[in-house]
Write a structure and sequence with these properties.
7 helices, Rrf2 family protein, Arc Repressor Mutant, subunit A, WH-like_DNA-bd_sf, Tscrpt_reg_Rrf2, DNA-binding transcription factor activity, WH_DNA-bd_sf
Length: 155
Amino acid sequence: MNRDSRLSGILHVLLHMAQAPGPVTSEVLGQAMSTNPAVIRRIMAGLRKAGYVRSGKGHGGGWTLSCALEDVTLLDIYKALGEPTLLAIGLRNDDSRCLVEQSVNAALSASFAEAEALLLARFGEVTLADLNKTFASGYDGRIGLLAAHAGHEHH
């Protein structure tokens, strides 16, 4: 089963961007994330629309943060990504006539809703600044975005 890793990936990208001295191109971000630059542009478009990043064209252009890390939570970024599905498990049949399956569905649905509510509440408590503090304590400023992903460990 494939997992949706966009939230994890974009948080990774945003923290790199916070350390970058200037704009970072979609090509550089795509290479760093081992994905096509078009994928980066598509994901970043939602963040731009929400006001968290901006982009510049031409020589010296690229993506930059347009928000304070303290003001943006994981929940904000999750919403800007279009609120991807949080849980990989689901119901076998949403509209069953079987009373046993209806009972199972009711119990599972309530549990799923509770788990999602707890997760979203936690997302709302963690800011990008919190993540950046954890990351920055081990960051070596001499390792650039590409160098870090070309073989230097930075996690």
